[in-house]
C-alpha cells in the first residue's frame, strides 16, 4: 500500500514547491512597492491636472475677434460736397490703395472690384457705390465707409506718414494732405492672445488737412 501521509510529506519537500514559494513577494516588500506607487500618483496627477487647468483657463480668456494693422481714414468731409465720381488715393507707409466713389449715399452700398462689377446695374439713390482694382482687394477695408481702413502689416509703435489725395469727376484736385501718425498697439482678444495689431485714425477735414484722431 502507498502511504498517503508519507507521500504528502514527501511532496512538501518537492523542489517545485520551493520555486513557487520563492516567486511570492514577502508581505513587507509588497507594502513598500504599493506605498511608492501611491506617492508617485499623488505627485504626478495633481501636476497634470494643474497644467491642463492652466492651459484651458488661459485659452478661455482669448476670444476670436479678427483684426488687421492699418490706418482708418474718415472721408466724410471730402465726399460730402464733391461731384462724383471721386477718385481717391491713400498711402500708409508701404501700402497704397486707389478707388473711385461712383455714387454717395447713407443707405448702405457696395464695393465693386474691377473683375466683378456688374454692367448696367442701377443703384438706389441713397446708397454708395465704389469701384476698386481687384489687385488691391486685400489692402483695404471699406466696411465702415465713408471711413476706410488702409491695411499695412508692417506697422509697429514707430510713427508713420499717411498721405491722401482726391479728385472730383472733372479731374480737379479737391484734397491733398499728409499727416504724421503714431500707431497704437491693439489686442482685441486680450493680453497674450493673437492677434496683436497696430493702428490709428485720421480725419480728412473740410479745411483740407489730414488730422490724427487722439
Give a description of the structure.
- The chain has four helices and twelve strands.
- Mean pLDDT is 79; it is low at 1-25.
- The strands form two sheets. Strands 1, 6, 7, 10, 11 and 12 form a six-stranded mixed β-sheet that branches. A six-stranded mixed β-sheet has the order 4-5-3-2-8-9, with no helix packed on it.
- It starts with a helix and ends with a strand.
- A hairpin with a 2-residue loop joins strand 2 and strand 3 (95-103).
- By secondary structure, the chain is of the alpha+beta class.
- 27% of the residues lie in helices and 34% in strands.
- It has helices at residues 4-12, 15-23, 27-60, 76-80; strands spanning 70-74, 86-92, 95-103, 109-113, 128-132, 140-144, 147-151, 160-167, 173-181, 184-186, 197-204, 210-212.
- It folds into two domains: 4-60; 70-212, no CATH class.
The helix content is: 25-40%
Structural class: alpha+beta
Number of domain units: 2
Strand content: 25-35%
Main beta-sheet strand count, sense and barrel state: 6 strands, mixed
Oligomeric state of shown chains:
single chain
The rough form would be described as globular
Helix/strand order = HHHEHEEEEEEEEEEE
Distance between the termini: 115 Å
Give the helix/strand layout:
Elements (H helix, E strand, L loop, with lengths): L3 H9 L2 H9 L3 H34 L9 E5 L1 H5 L5 E7 L2 E9 L5 E5 L14 E5 L7 E5 L2 E5 L8 E8 L5 E9 L2 E3 L10 E8 L5 E3 L2
Parallel strand pairs: 1-11, 4-5
Antiparallel strand pairs: 1-7, 2-3, 2-8, 3-5, 6-7, 8-9, 10-11, 11-12
Amino acid at each position: 500500500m502507498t502511504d498517503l501521509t508519507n507521500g504528502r510529506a514527501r511532496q512538501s519537500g518537492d523542489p517545485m514547491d520551493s520555486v513557487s514559494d520563492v516567486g511570492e513577494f514577502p508581505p513587507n516588500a509588497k507594502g513598500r512597492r504599493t506605498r511608492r506607487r501611491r506617492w508617485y500618483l499623488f505627485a504626478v496627477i495633481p501636476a497634470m491636472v494643474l497644467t491642463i487647468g492652466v492651459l484651458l483657463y488661459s485659452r478661455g480668456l482669448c476670444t476670436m475677434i479678427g483684426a488687421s494693422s492699418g490706418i482708418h481714414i474718415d472721408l466724410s468731409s471730402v465726399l460730402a460736397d464733391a461731384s462724383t465720381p471721386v477718385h481717391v488715393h491713400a498711402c500708409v507707409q508701404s501700402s497704397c490703395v486707389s478707388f473711385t466713389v461712383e455714387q454717395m449715399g447713407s443707405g448702405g452700398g457696395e464695393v465693386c472690384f474691377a473683375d466683378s462689377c456688374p454692367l448696367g446695374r442701377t443703384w438706389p439713390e441713397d446708397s454708395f457705390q465704389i469701384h476698386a482694382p481687384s489687385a488691391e482687394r486685400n489692402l483695404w477695408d471699406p466696411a465702415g465707409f465713408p471711413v476706410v481702413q488702409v491695411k499695412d502689416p508692417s506697422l509697429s509703435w514707430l510713427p508713420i506718414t499717411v498721405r491722401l489725395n482726391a479728385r472730383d469727376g472733372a479731374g480737379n484736385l479737391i484734397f491733398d494732405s499728409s499727416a504724421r501718425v503714431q500707431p497704437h498697439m491693439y489686442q482685441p482678444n486680450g493680453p497674450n492672445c493673437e492677434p496683436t495689431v497696430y493702428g490709428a485714425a485720421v480725419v480728412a477735414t473740410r479745411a483740407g488737412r489730414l488730422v490724427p484722431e487722439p
